[in-house]
Design a protein that fits this description.
- With 354 residues, this protein is of the alpha/beta class.
- It folds into two domains: 23-174 and 183-218, 3-Layer(aba) Sandwich (Rossmann fold), CATH 3.40.50; 234-338, no CATH class.
- 36% of the residues lie in helices and 14% in strands.
- The protein has helices at 3-15, 17-21, 56-67, 86-93, 107-123, 161-174, 198-203, 239-259, 268-285, 302-310, 321-326; strands spanning 25-31, 40-43, 72-78, 99-101, 129-133, 142-145, 151-152, 189-191, 206-207, 209-211, 216-218, 297-300, 335-338.
- Helix 1 (3-15) packs antiparallel against helix 8.
- The longest helix has 21 residues, at 239-259.
- The N and C termini lie far apart (66 Å).
Length: 354
């Protein structure tokens, strides 16, 4: 069954989580009628881009993206007369990426993209995120940039809020999970319309750019989520936390699909082996992704197994937890984990006693 090999896969993914997160993937939709190139292209470096296939402005957007150091960029090149982005979003759905940006986005397209990201995350559990301008989405998958009129060394004319989303997407994709995007210095900015009320705007789920009298930087790494629930607390509004959550979800799902589905018998021993692999993976994330002082655990989900058994009309009153755990659940695998994600240092309260 290759279980030792599977354990190695989990361990490797955990140990390389930080390095992998430093090199994320950005998808960008560019409206361009310039001849040449493919509708969908993947570039690992700005040097791979044939600038003759794009307008000067679109090439500047790509420079904004690559300044953040993403692993690669998926470029979807669409005609300027495109009436709907829906067909192009469908193409992106089957590809792997972390952040989406559309520098030339319209108000109608912004509504479409925001709704699509929410649907993909909630319905199909995709870990897509988008950086959008002036988008009050109230959702962890949407980063709402609200600073505009940005003069940058990476472009000629000033960049609008929508255009500069490309720079933010590149930064977020390139950042290590060892830090957050809060106070990330945007060294390319010469001037920008920074807000007079950054604290209030951040509380409203806005990602703003601030100036500290010397340099321009991201005020705080937050997404647009402002409505909190028991399942989605305030921590879900932090971009770093969501990066960890998405990484955790992607790693476990992809490993299960690639190494377990159809290849491993679904009995109690193999379920426990899978749990052990998850626990080992969690251990390797402790420090930069998971809180090392927390008891990060995983186990066969007794409650879900009990519901499965009772769903078959069987009375479980006299069954012990071990009986429940060992019960044959067909092809169903019920696992629960209890973990705590860790944030970066951002807020200081210093009491100086004299």
């Amino acid at each position: 069954m290759g279980l030792p090999e599977i354990n190695i896969i989990f361990k490797t993914k955990g140990l390389t989580a930080i390095q992998r997160s430093e090199r994320g993937i950005v998808a960008v939709i560019l409206k361009d009628d310039t001849e040449g190139g493919q509708p969908v292209s993947i570039y690992k470096s700005i040097l791979d881009v044939d600038f003759s296939q794009f307008t000067q402005r679109n090439y500047e957007y790509l420079k904004l993206l690559y300044e953040g150091g993403p692993y690669k960029v998926i470029v979807v090149k669409v005609p300027t007369t495109t009436e709907s982005l829906s067909p192009w979003l469908k193409k992106l759905r089957d590809l792997k990426w972390n952040y989406l940006t559309v520098p030339g986005i319209t108000e109608d397209e912004k509504t479409l993209v925001s709704a699509w990201i929410k649907e993909e995350r909630e319905k199909d559990h995709k870990t897509f995120k988008a950086v959008l301008p002036e988008c009050v989405a109230d959702h962890e998958g949407i980063i709402n940039l609200t600073t505009g009129n940005i003069q940058s060394t990476l472009g000629g004319e000033a960049f609008s809020t929508a255009e500069y989303c490309a720079r933010i997407a590149g930064v977020l994709a390139g950042l290590s999970l060892a830090r957050s995007s809060t106070y990330f210095v945007l060294s390319d900015i010469v001037s920008a319309d920074v807000p007079d009320d950054p604290d209030e705007r951040i509380d409203k789920g806005e990602l703003v750019i601030v100036f500290d009298s010397e340099k321009y930087k991201i005020g705080r790494g937050v997404n647009s989520l402002t409505t909190f629930t028991a399942e989605h607390g305030e921590e879900f509004s932090k971009i770093k936390i969501m990066e960890g959550v998405d990484l955790y979800q992607d790693d476990i799902r992809s490993t299960f699909e690639d190494a377990y589905v159809g290849k491993v018998i679904n009995d109690y021993d193999n379920k426990q082996a899978f749990v052990a692999a998850i626990i080992a993976y969690q251990k390797s994330l402790e420090g930069n992704v998971l809180d090392r002082s927390f008891d990060n655990t995983a186990a066969v989900d007794i409650d879900q197994q009990r519901l499965y058994i009772e769903g078959k009309g069987i009375d479980t009153t006299d069954m012990s937890d071990i009986d429940i755990a060992k019960y044959n659940t067909g092809s169903k695998v019920f696992i629960s984990s209890h973990v705590k994600f860790v944030d970066a240092m951002e807020d200081l309260s210093l009491v100086c006693n004299m």
